[in-house]
Amino acid sequence: MSRLTRDDIVVGAGRRFATYGYHGTSMRDLGEDLGILGSSIYSHIGGKQELLVAVVERGAAFFEEAASTVLAIEAPPEEQMRGLIAGHIGVLLDQRPEARTYLTQVDCLDKDEAERINKMRDEYEGAFYSTIVAGIDEGVFREDCDPRLAAIYVLSILNALERWYDEQGRLSRSEIVEDMYRFVIGALT
């Protein structure tokens, strides 16, 4: 077996945290998953809290990259919303362990780390907010729409997808993106 890297351990911790949660994961469990002694993990990382931070940061980075890619392209607000929805769904499905840990385990972080990660979450939410504001300003979205609440609603609906959507089920990924987009646009217009 090749030698494990810090990244291998972070990826393994992401799978474990996503399945069992932070408090339901021990270093021994993680070591068993990785085929090493739990104590050997400490040669790569300072502790379980540091692992959680690393996994949550990866999740945040995946979401931020998806939003940045969409917002870098000049497009009408409704098309940017389609891209944001598709990007968010892509992260939820392609990066499930990191996304789930980011969405569900932030409260397990130390106070300072939780505040920092929550600021990152707020910045990501800002991509949806600014797109909604642009749509209101351009007369594409309802003027009586509260953009802050609308962004929260959209993200809440999208985040729930991670718990129930099965890619082997009735709807393909592209169909779920399109259906979700129509639902959101219907609410905004």
What is the class in the CATH system? Mainly Alpha
Please write the string of helix (H) and strand (E) elements. Answer: HHHHHHHH
CATH superfamily: Tetracycline Repressor, domain 2
Compute the number of structural domains: 1
Note the quaternary state here: single chain
- Specify the CATH architecture: Orthogonal Bundle
What are the low-pLDDT stretches, counting only 5+ consecutive residues below 50?
Answer: none
- Gross geometry: elongated
Radius of gyration, Cα only, in angstroms? 18 Å
Strand runs, count: 0
The end-to-end span amounts to 56 Å
Task: Estimate the helix proportion, in percent.
Answer: over 70%
Beta-strand residue fraction: under 5%
Q: Helix count, per DSSP?
A: 8
Q: Which fold name fills CATH's third level, the topology?
A: Tetracycline Repressor, domain 2
Structural class: mainly alpha
Would you tell me the overall average pLDDT? 94
Summarize the main sheet: none
